[in-house]
Amino acid sequence: MAKRVAKTYTQETAANGVEQAFKLLEGRWKLVIMFHLFGGRVMRFSELERAIPSVSQKMLAQQLRQMESDGLVHRVVHQQVPPKVEYGLTSWGHALCPALDALLTWLEERPSSESDDEE
Questions:
Q1: Domain with 80 in it: what CATH number?
Q2: Which domain, by its residues, includes 36?
């Protein structure tokens, strides 16, 4: 396996990269869907609907389609009646888990008062 060389970013290239990443993840439900699929979990469409009760069926389908086309989610259709469709994260989608864990840790460290920002 080839060793990956760390890329050096400028302020501009870093800002552009972050913007591209946010475009892939934008949408109210994408990160919620990803959290349900982390850990190699594979879920049927109906299971995701039950796990995220406030999302509409139309919106869930739309978000999953976008995530699939962006390479974050893979979709498996089992040829049976009724059709069975399962979703899971791709290895690239799953690689986002540590970054999202770091984001949660960062949020937990939020200062309890606004006075910390004044220092």
A1: 1.10.10.10
A2: 27-107
